[in-house]
Amino acid sequence: MCGGCVGTEYPERGTTCLEGGSFLLNFVGCAQCGRRDFVLLGNRAAGLHGGDEIVTYDHLCKNCHHLIARHEYTFSVVDDYQEYTMLCLLCGRAEDSISILPDDPRQMTPLF
Q1: Cα angle vertex 11, ends 6, 14, to 5°?
Q2: How far is CA 107 from the centre of its chain?
Q3: Cβ count near 20 (within 10 Å)
Q4: 79, 86, 98, 111: which sits with the fewest CB atoms below 10 Å from its CB?
Q5: How far is CA 67 from CA 25, 77, 99, in A?
Q6: What is the greatest pairwise CA distance in the chain?
Q7: Where is the signal peptide, in residue numbers (predicted)?
Q8: Does residue 69 contact residue 88 with C-beta atoms inside 8 Å?
Q9: Domains in the chain: ranges and CATH
């Protein structure tokens, strides 16, 4: 992975968890060839590991195929919530949790 290709290493992305794609605003250019172009996705793998769905892939320079970053996205169901995480040098780090119930108990206001 290459810290010279990104503006900020592992930027905080809040709840934005990407299963595919790239955070191009953080890509300053390839440290190997010096060009700033689109980023290719390579070596994509998806599978289950202990009940969690894990998707991994590489961000590669479109021109010279230099490895910019490795991306990891996970999805799991814990109790009544869907849990998402993302960790990537280019795209950043993020976590999200969404209730599988029609009304999220965490969002409900007490009546009294």
Answers
A1: 150
A2: 25
A3: 10
A4: 111
A5: 17, 32, 36
A6: 63
A7: none
A8: yes
A9: 3-100 (2.60.40.4240)
Question: Measured between alpha carbons, how far is 65 from 13 in angstroms, rounded to an integer?
Answer: 26
Output the six-digit token pair for 105. 């108990």
- d(C-alpha 24, C-alpha 83), whole Å: 25
- d(Cα 17, Cα 83) in Å, to the nearest integer? 10
Residue scoring higher pLDDT (104 or 38): 38
First to last CA, the chain: 53
For 33-78, give the DSSP string: T-----EEEEEEEEEEETTEEEEEEEEEETTT--EEEEEEEEEEEE
Q: List, in sequence order, every residue forming a beta bridge with 93; answer none if it has no partner.
A: 12, 87
Residues 9, 30: Cα–Cα separation, whole Å:
14
Say if residue 107's pLDDT is above 80.
Answer: no
